[in-house]
DUF1566 domain-containing protein
Amino acid sequence: MPVYTKKTAHMINKLFITAIVLCLLPASVTFGQQLKKEQLKGTNASNLGSTYAVFYSTGMPESAIWPLGMELSVNGSTIRHTSLDAIGSNINVNDKVPFRFIIAPADGGSGATSTWAAAMGLNTSANSNLTPDGVGATTGCADYTTTEFPSGWRLPTQREMMLMWLFREGINTIYPAGALSDQYWSATEMDAGDAWSLDFTETAPESTASRKTSTYKYRCVRDY
């Protein structure tokens, strides 16, 4: 079972690593993080399973990790939140990362671009509001499916996207036909009209506040 660590997944300038670590978690807890190539049977019991990229938060302190089995989505959409706070009575799901999560093998919408609300699986009104709950729509990650996991996918948080950027070469090695490229939406909102996106073609992970009506790619993840 191949295991991609930060050292083997990519070569990156130490200055960039330091900047990323400061934005995410204390440097002392990042070295155990792993991206594993695993054959997962999933929720479809009749299927033998296919290969997936699974991120593990190994080595992080317990206070930085959501409990195993916790779902960070509601009705197929990631719980609405901002980068620094919760929205209403919601939890701030960007405050921590799951112990493990599955990264989808391909972009949603067959690589097509979409607005933030469409990628989230929310009604278009979510592109211009900041409410605890959004009206669901059968689009984006709420509609994403694989043979093993026909449901349960959601848009990754800003923090999860940063981790995916760090391990992008390992992800692209596992998914040669579904490599991460271009600008991608995260589920994390800045305000009523903007959400955070990340460009996987850049040499450093720069999270950008973008108008929710802009159209970018999206890559779904699944709590596991």
Q: What stands out?
A: DSSP finds five helices and 13 strands in the chain. Residues 14-24 form the longest helix (11 residues). Residues 3-223 form one domain. Residues 17 and 166 are 9 Å apart (CA to CA).
